[in-house]
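re: ur msg from earlier - yeah i can do the adenosine-5'-diphosphate complex, just paste it... oh wait u already did. ok heres what im feeding in:
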Amino acid sequence: MSRLGLDDSVRFMKGVGPHRAGSLASLGVETLRDLVHYFPMRHEQHGPTVAIEDLQLDQTQAVVGKVLRAKLIGVGRASRIQAAIGDQTGRMHVTWFSAPWMLEKLTGGAWVKIRGKVKLYADWPQMVNPEIEFLSTPIPTEAAEQQRLLPVYRATEGITSKQIDQIVRRGWKMAAPQIEEWYDAPYRTQRKLLPRRLAMQRLHWPDTPTQLAEARHRLAYDELLLLQLAVAIRRWHVREGRQAPAMPLSATIDERIRRRFPFKFTAAQDRAVREIVGDMGKSVAMNRLLEGDVGSGKTAVALYASLLAIAHRWQVTVIAPTEILAEQHYNRICEYLKGSRVRHGLLTGSTGAKVRRGLLKAAASGELDILVGTHALLEQDVEFARLGLVIVDEQHRFGVRQRATLRGKGHAPHYMVMTATPIPRTLAMTLFGDLDISVIDKMPPGRQPVRTRLMARGDEPAAFRFVKTRIEAGEQAFVVYPLINEAEDLPLRAATEEFERLKKFYFADTPIGLLHGRMPAAEKQKVMDAFVAGRTKVLVATTVVEVGIDVPRATVMLVQHAERYGLAQIHQLRGRVGRRNLPGHCVLLADTSSEQALERLRVLTSTTDGFAVAEADLRMRGPGELIGLRQHGLPELQVADLSKDMELLMEARRDAQALVARDPRLRSPALAAIREELRRRVGQVIGLIDVA
Ligand code: ADP
Ligand code: MG
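and the outut:
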């Protein structure tokens, strides 16, 4: 077998033809490097083998023996193979159904290991359709057999876990000498890390669970270090690189801005304002995440920042993920700015051509102070004369590229993102390490807490009776479904079909509306307007209502199939009700009897604190749903698991920060291997430090 380099294709390996190469590619394995980094999903501990005379009825056991005879009975699909297998202590029957091709391999005298459930057949022990392994040496040594943890790889069409195992073993022989160590010995000793090569080998083929855990620890650390290096480099780059206009606050400006609001800022808002003002006063670009529950008053704080920029004659743009939200921001801004000289505009996909031209002209000439909008703002012909502040709402819906586009429209604008997804602080710090974080953790006064109840599917009539009592009191309700249309393969109720059913059975004499993401924008708007104005009382919807919509008289959020949602997502949904002076109600209809699922949902009935909910969600489901690493331009994790490896993450973070502080461009030869790996995983980030 010729030697392969790590970057050579697995196609060139013995035993990997074009067909298998295709299967491997669909698993993300193309090169030898990919192959040896394709770690098992889990390991199976196969119990020791048992002598035939010791087999126990109804137990799943393994036997090593010799094939005594085998014959095919019947034909085609109905055929079966009947074989006898013996060892020194006795003999047994084995039957395989529908596997005539095996006959050829079951030659008399072949040594096999079989594993399956033990039954009796005419007084003989027997196994039906057992797993079988053909052994090249007669009998594996007992000791090795008992310790063995066998890797189970994620397989796919055309290739089994076992075949992957064989290919990885062959690949490993060639790859192992080429695997480089990342750290020197003292660094490893101090952190109790195995050498990288050994760790890789043991993550595939550990002898003991302890070895497996140690191997995992080392490789998880490596991944988390890479992740944190990416974050630390970005942060360093942002700090070092970005000149921005300084926009210092004066007492006069502060007073003028605050006059625009019909309320006093809460202490939490004031703290966020202080942090933002501190950033914008400097000639380094602000890069800040503003986090706060729905209704905590982020928009007011964002407008404060906007007015500060405008006071210094800079332009501001605010981008929201949906038209409904952009309009809502815009309307609120209009309200706050009534009677002021600030010139503002709204640009979305449904803005007419003529109005659009006017807006673009005004933005490019500097006549417009603040432009609110959607993705439409990202178009190339949208230009600003003096863009000084970019505000992004609900940033996790925008990709890295889009955010960069937006920033590029200014020379070097200050930058702020707002999110109502309560991201646990530890996680936010680690994933958005390049952003500073302000948290609004207290609600404005007068907001009513939302009462949350968990009900079973069978309680639906009672739930809707409750909805009716609220409607009779002049209030409104959302009913949310996970799907737009029913899907054959999912036993889920869907908005469109349910809309008809609810109309018929529960709300025959109540005006109700239907809203989902696939409706044309104009129609969505009409439905939304009718609901906001109170012409419809119930809004059946998918989670398009999740972000940001304000309906003052909506007090009930009924969530169907609550078990299908993340806690944070439901928390956002219930943030839509219970504003002003009307108490809110959230009803969770759960279509499950899984105690685990119900336990999870009970978190929502016991706390209204978004951060507590997010922490619980993180603990129970992991961060996968909360955050897409790839989407944030960060390396993805294979081995590490953010919901379990929090401590290791913090350690890696400290180490990464120290490394970058000493050597921000990772130029030291000792870091060459890490730098290379970083380039492979997140070239973007290395791009930041490659420039001379
Ligand atoms: P968010 O953007 O965080 O969801 P908003 O800024 O939209 O929150 O504010 C939610 C509601 O609370 C709005 O009606 C707003 O006018 C009101 N509000 C904001 N700040 C205060 C405050 N300090 N005191 C009273 N009401 C406030
Ligand atoms: Mg808002």
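cool cool. The radius of gyration is 31 Å. ping me if u need the other ligands too
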